[in-house]
Design a protein that fits this description.
Elements lengths: L1 H10 L7 E5 L5 H9 L4 E4 L2 H7 L8 E4 L8 H6 L4 E5 L2 H14 L3 E7 L12 H9 L9 E8 L7 H19 L9 E4 L5 H6 L4 E4 L1 H4 L10 E4 L9 H14 L6 H7 L4 H13 L5 H19 L10 H10 L3 E5 L5 H4 L2 H4 L4 E5 L12 H10 L6 E5 L2 H9 L3 E5 L6 H6 L4 E3 L2 H12 L2
Parallel strand pairs: 1-2, 1-8, 2-3, 3-4, 4-5, 5-6, 6-7, 9-10, 9-12, 10-11, 12-13, 13-14
Helix pairs in contact: 6-7, 10-11, 10-13, 12-13, 14-20
Length: about 450
C-alpha cells in the first residue's frame, strides 16, 4: 500500500489536466502493478530490453512512455513494441532513424523533441535555435511517419529554484512559439518536471510530469552480497588520465580528433569499438581493420610510455574495500573492457588472493555498454542476480551493469558530473571509495 499512498500524496499537487507518467524504470513488475491498481496507466521506461521484458507481464492497457536516451541501433526493437510516446528524441539524426523505421513497420510514431535548456553541457537535446529551424522551415514534411506531440526538457541539476524556473519558462516559451508555426497539427504535450521539481514545472506550464522516486521510493540495497564485479580502469587503478592522453595522441596521429572528455564517455568499451565509434563520427563509415590495428597499437605504446611500464597508482581506498569484502566472504571479480595486458597480468600481484575471476576484452563479443561482460561474470559466479553488485565509475559501465539486471554502485573518480552516472540508472552515486566502504559496511551488517 506504500506506493498507493505515495500516489495519493503526489496527486494532490497535480491538476486534472496534467498527465502523470510513473517512472517505473528498474522497478519490479509487482511495484508497477500496485501503481496500476491505484489507477495509474502511464508508465515510463528507459531501457528497451527492460520494457520488452515487462510488457507481457502487465495489463495491455498500460500506456508505455520511453523516457531514456535512445540509441539509433535500438530504434527498431523499440518501435516493434509500439510505445505510446517517445520522450527523448534529442537530434535530427535520431528523428530520421525513428521515421525510417516507422515507415518500414507501417505506422506513425508519436514523439516529443527534447530541448536543451539546462546549464550542464552534458545534457542532451536540440538547442532552441535548432528546434525553431526544424519546425519552422518545412523540414518536418520529410518525417511523414513521426508525429511531434510536443517538447520535453530537464532542468539544471540544482537546488536553485530560480535556475529551475528559468529552464522550464524558457521551454514553455519555445513550446508556444513553435505551436504558432504548426497551424495544422499543433503540439499538445509539454513534458517537464520530475520528483524534485514537478510542482515548479506545473506552475511554468507543464502538462506532463515524470515522477519516479516520489511514487516508488528511493531504491535501497540491504540484501546479502555474495559477489561484487569491479571495473578496472578508474575503479581499481587511477589509470584514466594516462588512457585519456594515450587515446588523444593515437587518434590525432591518425587524423581523428579526440579529447579527454571523449575518453571518459567511452570508458568501458573495447579498444576497437572506441576507434570504430570515433571513425564513424569523422568519416561516416566503419574503420578498416588495418586502421583499427594501427591506432590501437599506437594507443598501447603511448600508454606504456606514459606509465613508464609501471602500474598506475591505486584508486584511493579501493584496497580497503576489497579487503573488507574478502574478509566477509564476498567474491570479487574484475570486469573490464581493457585488453591492456600490462594491467591484466599484474592484477594477481597487486591484489594477491583477492579476485575470483577476470572478464576482459578477450572474453566477450560485445563490450560495454552491452551487458555481456557483466552477464558473463554473473553466470560464472553462480549466484543469483540479487546477490551480486557492480562497482563502476563510467556512464557506459553503469549502463552495462543496469542492462545486466544488477545493482550498480557508481563511484565518481573521473571528470564527468554525477548527473551523467545517475542518468544511466546508477542505483547509488558515491564520491569516493571511502563512501562505498561505509555503504558496504552498512549492507553487510544487516
Amino acid at each position: 500500500m506504500l506506493i498507493a499512498n505515495n500516489i495519493r500524496s503526489v496527486r494532490k499537487h497535480i491538476p486534472a489536466h496534467v498527465t502523470l507518467v510513473c517512472v517505473s524504470k528498474f522497478q519490479s513488475v509487482e511495484a508497477i502493478r500496485e501503481a496500476y491498481n491505484a489507477g495509474e496507466r502511464h508508465f515510463g521506461e528507459s531501457r528497451v530490453q527492460e520494457l520488452k521484458a515487462k510488457m507481457p507481464l502487465l495489463p495491455a492497457d498500460i500506456r508505455w512512455h520511453f523516457i531514456g536516451h535512445l540509441q539509433t541501433n535500438k530504434v527498431r526493437d523499440l518501435l516493434k513494441l509500439r510505445p505510446h510516446l517517445i520522450h527523448s528524441v534529442d537530434s535530427e539524426h535520431l528523428l530520421k532513424a525513428i521515421n525510417d523505421e516507422a515507415l518500414k513497420q507501417g505506422f506513425v510514431q508519436d514523439v516529443l523533441l527534447e530541448v536543451h535548456v539546462a546549464r550542464e553541457t552534458t545534457k542532451s537535446g536540440f538547442t532552441p535555435e535548432e528546434l525553431r529551424g526544424l519546425m519552422g522551415n518545412g523540414q518536418m514534411a520529410n518525417f511523414s511517419h513521426v508525429c511531434v506531440k510536443g517538447l520535453m526538457a530537464m532542468a539544471t541539476n540544482t537546488d536553485d529554484e530560480t535556475e529551475i524556473r528559468r529552464c522550464f519558462t524558457m521551454t514553455k516559451t519555445l513550446y508556444d512559439q513553435i505551436n504558432g508555426l504548426m497551424v495544422n497539427v499543433p503540439m499538445v504535450n509539454l513534458s517537464m518536471g520530475m520528483s524534485d521539481d514537478y510542482q515548479i514545472a506545473i506552475t511554468c506550464g507543464a502538462n506532463m510530469v515524470r515522477i519516479g522516486s516520489a511514487i516508488f521510493g528511493e531504491r535501497d540495497y540491504t540484501r546479502k552480497l555474495k559477489a561484487v564485479f569491479f571495473d578496472q580502469d578508474g575503479v581499481l587503478f587511477n589509470s584514466m588520465p594516462d588512457h585519456a592522453k594515450a587515446w588523444e595522441l593515437a587518434m590525432n596521429e591518425n587524423g581523428l580528433p579526440f579529447t579527454a572528455l571523449q575518453t571518459y564517455r567511452n570508458e568501458g568499451r573495447t579498444g576497437p569499438s572506441v576507434i570504430h565509434e570515433n571513425y564513424r563520427l569523422v568519416h561516416g563509415t566503419d574503420a578498416p581493420e588495418e586502421v583499427i590495428e594501427r591506432i590501437y597499437q599506437s594507443k598501447c605504446a603511448h600508454f606504456n610510455r606514459l606509465t613508464g611500464g609501471q602500474l598506475p597508482e591505486l584508486v584511493p581506498g579501493v584496497r580497503d574495500v576489497l579487503n573488507f569484502l574478502k574478509a566477509h566472504g564476498v567474491q570479487c571479480w574484475v570486469v573490464t573492457g581493457s585488453g591492456q595486458r600490462s594491467l591484466l597480468e599484474n592484477l594477481s600481484n597487486t591484489f594477491p588472493g583477492i579476485f575470483t575471476g577476470v572478464i576482459c576484452a578477450y572474453d566477450v563479443t560485445h563490450g560495454k555498454p552491452d551487458p555481456e561482460p557483466y552477464l558473463k561474470a554473473w553466470e560464472r559466479s553462480g549466484f543469483k542476480k540479487e546477490e551480486c553488485a557492480v562497482v563502476e565509475n563510467a556512464p557506459l559501465g553503469v549502463r552495462a551493469g543496469k542492462a545486466a539486471g544488477l545493482y550498480t554502485f557508481a563511484v565518481n573518480t573521473g571528470i564527468l558530473p554525477d548527473s551523467e552516472l545517475a542518468a544511466e540508472g546508477a542505483d547509488l552515486v558515491l564520491p569516493n571509495m571511502q563512501a562505498l566502504l561505509q555503504r558496504l559496511t552498512a549492507i553487510l551488517s544487516v
